[in-house]
Amino acid sequence: MNRILSRIAVCLALVIFAVFSFGPAAGTLSDPERYTAYTASLDDKTETVLKLMAASTVTSAGLSAIPGDTATPIAEKLADFSEYFLLILCVLYAEKYLLCIIPLGVFKALIPLSCALFIGGRFWNPRFMDRQGVKLLLASLALLCVIPLSIRTSDLIYATYQQSIDSAISSAEELSGETAALAEAEDTGVLSSLLSKLSETKESLTERASAVLNRFVETLAVMIVTSCVIPILVLFFFLWLARQLTGVDLRDLRDFRPRPRREDRSASS
């Protein structure tokens, strides 16, 4: 009798926890106002990526306008950067929306489902049901932490290279302005006078374009690591940690198979 009452008490507590998770917890923790610090960081990175896209596109167009084919290969490489920056921009927007979507899915679906597994374990196959419940609960906690922790980790790396990224943008903007003026002078027939004012030749502008290209390569690597690689690594770390804590493996699914009845074992022997 006491065992039945204890089971009922545990099931009732799990039901209350599931209802609380589905209702108040989901509404509170999926509120965008709770993540203003994280969204501000993502907005800052988004603005930087937009500047990089604009700078690479304008610089590529300016280099293409220089008479001759000296800077054409560099212009083509810079034009390719826009596609990579667009991919990073999509990842940043996805992280911004997932900040609210993941808590909503976790508290409305995953945690109530884990409670249902624990309740089922009180009446049938407790070893399998409890392990799957713990596994799902830890996976839910990992999903809740992956975006905020990855943003904070990427902020540390991003802050280190912030000056380098700003320098790449300013160098590209300065170079695009000068190449545009150079191309315009070629069209108007006053190239020699403009070159005397700029004290530069097409070859020196090409060398500067090569330096800008190298800076963009470094900047692209930083943005890919901070925006794409770190979130994936953080997620895998949490999943690995959950597996180490629970010891759950796919081979545990064998526990779900029904055991042969006694008469079947005796017949087989």
How would you sum up this structure, described in words?
There is one protein chain. With 269 residues, the protein is an all-alpha fold. 85% of the residues lie in helices and 0% in strands. It is built from eight helices and no strands. It has helices at 2-29, 36-64, 72-121, 126-160, 162-188, 191-198, 202-246, 262-268. Mean pLDDT is 78; it is low at 189-200 and 248-269.
Write the layout of secondary structure elements.
Blueprint: H1 2-29, H2 36-64, H3 72-121, H4 126-160, H5 162-188, H6 191-198, H7 202-246, H8 262-268
Helix pairs in contact: 1-3, 2-3, 2-5, 2-7, 3-4, 3-7, 4-7, 5-6, 5-7
Can you count the beta strands?
0
Structural class: mainly alpha
Helix content: over 70%
- Total helix count? 8
String of helices and strands? HHHHHHHH
In short:
The protein is mostly helical and 269 residues long. Helices cover 85% and strands 0% of the residues.
Describe the structure using short key phrases:
269 residues, mainly alpha, 8 helices
